[in-house]
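Re: [ENG-882] Designed sequences occasionally contain unexpected residues at chain ends

Forwarding the minimal case from QA. C-alpha cells:
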C-alpha cells in the first residue's frame, strides 16, 4: 500500500533529537519492511505552545489550506494514499488533517500513540481535546504503546474501531555491544535531555535519591545536555566530589558503548511516556532501576529486568538501588535477562508483524463502513 504518514508533533526527519522522532522513524522502517511505500506528509509543525484560541485558529486555517491542496493534487493524478497513518495525536498536537482526508478519499485511518485526557476536556485545552476525540472516533485502528494510553482510548473501542497493543520497540543497525566487566565500584549511568518539565524533575529527583545513599560505593555517568544543565548540575553539586562524570550530548553509537561500560541504568522516569532509552540500556545487558510511572513498565519486565519503585517513593527507589549495588550476581542475572528480552521481544520484526495485523484489520473496517454507508444511501 501507499501510506500517508503524518506526525503532527514534529517532522520526524527534520534532524531534531527526540524520542517521538525516533519512534516515528522506527515505525516508518517497520512499515517499509512490509513492502509499503511510506510518504511523509509535509505539514508544518503542529505543536501548540499554548491553549490560546488564536493559535489553534491559525493551525486550523493552515491545515485547511494544506488539506485542500492535497486533495486537489490527488484529484489531478498525483498518486493518492491507500491508508492514512498518524503518529502521536494528542491535545498539544491534534491531527487536523487525517480524519477529513481519509473520509474524503474513503481510505482507512490509523493512529499510533494517540492519547486522550479527561482532565483536558474540561480546562483551557477543551477545544484541542475535542479535535483529538473527533479523530479517535473516526479511526479504524488505534495502536497503543502503554496501558495508560489504552485506558484513555477505551471509550473509542467499538465495532469498526479497534485498539491494538504495539509494545514499545527498538531497532539497531548492528547488534548492540554487551556489558563489560570492570574493576572498581559499580557504575551507574543515566541518559536524558536537560530540558524543563518531566526531564528536569527526574534529574532533580535522582539527585535527591543519590544524596540518600552517598555513603554507598558508586559512580554515576550522566549523558545529556540542554537548557537546564546549570540547574541540574547545581542539584548534584552536594554529592561527594568525584562521583559524577558529565559526558554531555554524544552520538547514539557512543552512547551504546558507554552503556556497556556501566552496570546499572538509573532514571526515575517521572511521568515518562515510556522511554526508548530503557530498551537501549537493557539491550546491552543493564538492569534498570526506575519509578513505576507513566509508561515505564511497558519497556521492562518488572522484577526480572528492572526494579520499579512506586511513583514518588524515593525511599523505596533508594532501597532498590542499594540492593542492586550490593549484589553483583543479581545485576548480572537481571542484565542477561534484559538483553534477551529486548533482542528477542522488542524488535522491528515483532513490531512489523503487529502493524501488518492492524493494517489488515483497518482495511476491513473501512470497507465495512463504506458498504454500510452505501446500503444506507440506497
Amino acid at each position: 500500500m501507499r501510506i500517508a504518514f503524518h506526525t503532527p508533533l514534529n517532522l520526524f526527519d527534520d534532524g531534531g533529537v527526540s524520542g517521538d522522532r525516533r519512534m516515528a522513524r522506527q515505525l516508518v522502517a517497520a512499515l517499509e519492511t512490509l513492502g509499503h511505500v511510506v510518504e511523509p506528509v509535509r505539514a508544518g509543525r503542529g505543536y501548540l505552545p499554548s491553549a490560546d484560541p488564536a493559535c489553534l485558529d491559525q493551525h486550523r486555517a493552515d491545515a485547511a489550506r494544506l488539506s485542500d491542496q492535497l486533495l486537489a493534487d490527488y484529484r489531478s493524478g498525483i498518486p493518492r494514499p491507500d491508508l492514512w497513518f498518524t503518529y502521536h495525536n494528542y491535545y498539544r498536537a491534534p491531527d487536523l488533517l487525517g480524519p477529513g482526508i481519509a473520509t474524503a478519499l474513503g481510505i482507512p485511518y490509523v493512529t499510533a500513540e494517540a492519547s486522550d485526557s479527561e482532565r483536558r476536556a474540561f480546562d483551557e485545552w477543551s477545544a484541542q481535546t475535542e479535535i483529538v476525540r473527533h479523530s479517535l472516533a473516526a479511526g479504524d485502528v488505534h495502536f497503543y504503546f502503554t496501558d495508560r494510553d489504552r485506558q484513555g482510548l477505551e471509550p473509542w473501542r467499538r465495532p469498526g474501531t479497534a485498539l491494538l497493543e504495539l509494545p514499545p520497540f527498538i531497532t539497531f543497525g548492528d547488534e548492540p555491544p554487551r556489558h563489560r566487566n570492570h574493576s572498581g565500584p559499580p557504575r551507574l549511568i543515566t541518559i536524558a535531555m536537560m530540558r524543563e518539565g518531566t526531564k528536569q524533575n527526574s534529574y532533580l529527583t535522582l539527585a535527591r535519591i543519590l544524596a540518600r545513599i552517598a555513603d554507598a560505593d558508586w559512580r554515576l555517568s550522566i549523558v545529556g545536555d540542554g537548557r537546564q544543565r546549570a540547574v541540574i548540575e547545581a542539584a548534584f553539586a552536594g554529592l561527594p566530589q568525584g562521583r559524577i562524570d558529565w559526558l554531555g550530548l554524544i552520538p547514539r553509537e557512543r552512547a551504546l558503548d558507554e552503556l556497556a561500560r556501566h552496570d546499572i541504568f538509573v532514571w526515575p522516569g517521572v511521568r515518562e511516556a515510556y522511554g526508548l532509552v530503557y530498551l537501549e540500556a537493557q539491550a546491552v545487558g543493564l538492569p534498570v532501576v526506575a519509578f513505576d510511572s507513566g509508561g515505564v513498565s511497558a519497556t521492562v519486565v518488572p522484577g526480572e529486568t528492572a526494579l520499579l519503585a512506586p511513583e514518588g517513593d524515593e525511599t523505596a527507589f533508594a532501597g532498590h538501588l542499594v540492593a542492586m549495588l550490593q549484589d553483583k550476581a543479581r545485576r548480572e542475572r537481571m542484565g542477561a535477562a534484559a538483553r534477551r528480552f529486548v533482542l528477542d521481544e522488542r524488535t522491528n520484526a515483532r513490531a512489523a508483524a503487529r502493524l501488518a495485523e492492524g493494517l489488515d484489520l483497518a482495511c476491513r473496517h473501512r470497507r465495512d463502513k463504506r458498504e454500510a454507508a452505501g446500503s444506507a444511501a440506497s
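QA comment: On inspection the terminal residues look reasonable. The chain is about 45% helix and 15% strand. Proposing we downgrade this to a documentation issue.
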